[in-house]
Each structure stands twice: as structure tokens, then as C-alpha cells.
Amino acid sequence: MKEVEILKINELLEKYPFVESYFEENKLDISGYENKTFIEFLDHFTLEEVEDMALDLNKNLIDLQEYIRQMKSFLGIEVSNSVDVLTILPGQDKLGNPEGFERLDIKKSEMIAIVGPTGSGKSRLLADIEWTAQNDTPTKRTILINDQYPDKKWRFSSNNKLVAQLSQNMNFVMDLSVKEFLELHARSRMVEDIEETVEKILEEANKLAGEKFRIDTQITALSGGQSRALMIADTAILSSSPIVLIDEIENAGIDRKKALDLLISSDKIVLIATHDPNLALLADKRIVINNGAIINIINTSVNEKNKLIELEDMDRKIQELRRALRYGESL
User: What residues form DSSP beta bridges with 245?
Assistant: First the structure.
């Protein structure tokens, strides 16, 4: 049996809030039938009511099932969209030599750092993942999703975005306030409580930003760091993309550790290209890139995690000095 036939109406509304729109558009008053299934609700109509309201009960049931299917596809919340494992299969370096690994599996909630000199190919690896490369990019890499060759929807559909990418440079071009921008995004995601969601995103963004900003600030007036903070909070709370790619977050002027904690806690796979030793050691693994190729994959050791504690202590001192200078204090 399908879930529409099994779940009670209040359970359907809780699982798929957008179903309320279907009832309203079809003038189906479900008041008093919330604890009934949709079939039981349809069965309560008398023959006279069916004729007067020109109802086709079988069609109503089929239409509701199709409505839910299409909305799940539109919102990218189909169960099949879940990514448990992202796999990278080797390609070649800039000279055509094979990469030095057999395969790399990245699991949900894992954080992977991508390290290497400037120009080594870190951004190219992020691009291969974004485009689910199939031996058809300059690196000849192949990307698998859940150990399968990815569905074409990942590459060509604007609604089933596999990846949310936060690039080094971010500029808004829309003439909206922060509130209007977030409400627009929340509405497009069919969020039930838009006001609460917008407040939550603003709260988290201001935890990351160096200088707090107001909800009525125009997004074009945000600094680079504030823009990054807003988009990280928005991605963590609103985006359905199961994979997040971040290019050099250390240049964003935000609280890097809090940003990563926020993204990882949302059950996503996070890959971050970085030159920052703190971020590299925060990751579960780090991919080492040179001359366009992955030359090594290193699991972060216990000894390195201990080194990270020392680095974080040094970083706190540097951050405090930076804060003091920024606010006009003398050292």
C-alpha cells in the first residue's frame, strides 16, 4: 500500500506540509478528519455531495499521490536523493600520468580537506564533484553516488542539486534585504514556519560573522565575510544538497570552526579546499593534490589531533590580537 493510503491526514501534513495546498486548491475541507486516512476522508462524502461537488473520488486519490511525488521531486527531498557515500575514482595528472590511488569513499557527515600548492588542482577536484565527472573532464576522474553511476538528474536538473558550493568570491546582485532574501528562499523550499526559519538563519549567520548585521540590511551592503556567513547558515539550514564544497573558507573573515560545525551537524558531506593547517587537521582525512592529481590520501592521526589543540590555542591568541587591533585597542 502507498503511504497516502496508510498515513492519517495529520501525519501526511506533518511529513509533507505542502499537502495543505492540495486540499485548499481542490476545496477539500479536511476539518474534523485529521485523524482519518485520506481514503476514509473521501469515503465520508454522500452520493449527493459527490454529485453536487462534481467529485471524482478515485481521481482525487491518484491526484494526491501524483502531487506528492512531483513536489518531492521539485523540492529535491526524494529518498533516492540521499547520498550516503561519495566515491572518487582516479583519473590523470596534468601530464596524463595516472593518479596514485585506487578509489576514495567519503561517507555522510565526514569532512575532507583538500590541500596542495596554489594552482595544483584543488578547485578542479571540487568542480569534478560538482559536475559528477564521468571520465569527461580534463582530469578523467569518475564520480559515483552511493556506489552507482549518478543519475542524469544530478548533472542536468536545477531542482535536484547534488552540491552546494561556497566559492572564494561571493557577490549578491539582487536588490533585497536579508529578510526578503531568506523569505524568498524559504518560500521556494516550501518551509512551513518561514519566520522562525529566517530568524534561525540570521542567528547562526551572526554567530559566524565578525560584525553582526541586521535583518533589514540590504544584501548588497553586506561585507564579504557577512555574505559568506549568511550563505553558510542558509546552506546548512535550508539547502537540500547533500554535499557541500567550500573553497578556502579561511579567507572569508568568519569563525571557520563554527561554520564547519554548523555544516557538518546538518548531516552533509563536506569537502573544503584549504591552506589553513587548523582546517586541514580538523578534517577526518586530507586529500593531497599536486600537478593536477591526487597524490596521497591521509587519515588525520591521533598525534595530529593533539597538534591541532596546540594550533587552536595559537589561533585563539592571534584572533584576539586581530580583534583588539580591529577595534582600535593597543597591544
Answer: 165, 271
Higher pLDDT, 113 or 161: 113
Calpha distance 269→108 (Å, rounded): 5
- State whether the Cα torsion 29-34-38-44 is positive or negative: negative
Whole-model pTM? Answer: 0.66
DSSP state of 269: E
The Cα 115–Cα 283 span in angstroms is 11
Q: Pick the closest to residue 213 from 244, 175, 177, 260 (CA basis).
A: 177
Q: Which long-range contacts (CB under 8 A, 24 or more apart) does 146-153 make?
A: 146/82, 146/83, 146/84, 146/85, 147/85, 147/87, 151/80
The 10 Å Cβ neighbour count of residue 285 is: 15
What percent of the chain clears pLDDT 90, i.e. is strictly above it? 30
Q: What is the Cα–Cα distance from 196 to 139, expressed in whole angstroms? A: 44
Angle between helices 224-238 and 194-208 (to 10 degrees): 140
For 83-118, what is each residue's pLDDT tens digit?
Answer: 889 999 999 999 999 998 999 999 887 889 999 998
- Phi, psi values for residue 328, rounded to 5°: 80, 15
Whether residue 228 contacts residue 240, with contact meaning beta carbons closer than 8 Å, is answered with no
Cell representation of residue 55: 467529485
**232 — pLDDT class (breaks 50, 70, 90):** confident
* 3-class SS of residue 152: helix
Grid cell digits, residue 29: 475541507
302: region left, alpha or beta (phi > 0 left; psi from -120 to 50 alpha): alpha
Question: Beta-carbon neighbour count of residue 60 at 10 Å?
Answer: 18
